[in-house]
Specification:
Layout: H1 3-6, H2 12-62, H3 67-75, H4 81-94, H5 97-107, H6 114-122, H7 132-179
Amino acid sequence: RCGWCSSLPHGAAPVLRLLGALGVFCVLSWCGLQKALWYCRRVDCLAAWQSALREGERQLCDLGIQTPEWLDWMQKQKTLGAFAEQCRAGLERSGSFSAAWRTALTQAEFPLDKDELWVLESLSDVIGRCDSASQRAALRSAQDRLELYACRAGEEKRRLGKMWSVLGLSAGALAVVLLY
């Protein structure tokens, strides 16, 4: 027995080993489940952006509403609210929608791939700077590309989300067996 173990009451060392093993199990399981949750958040984020772009097309192109009002609508959306608030504040500071949009996208912590973010970033050159027909074309093109990404993300969520969940739980269980 090691030095600190000899000072423990009789029977405490196995309990500490068990608690340690359970702690390792929980940490490894949590890591796997967090990775699986990332895939779920990505699918939700893509759906929120698709909805926002449809609403943007309606407001900006059909109703002729200005960009700040569209950002106000986006602020009320759970997933995009912080982004829209940051973009609106940047627009008020700089007066440049393009710069505010890009900065807000860079600072946002969306669970999206770089290609998905690029689609959104490309809108900064069109929204509020071009005529209604050009904005509509850009918004529809972005919607179409995000639809393809959303289908792919849904498949990855089903396949990889399950894999990461099982991997985390399995690694945790293996650690318990090895440590206990």
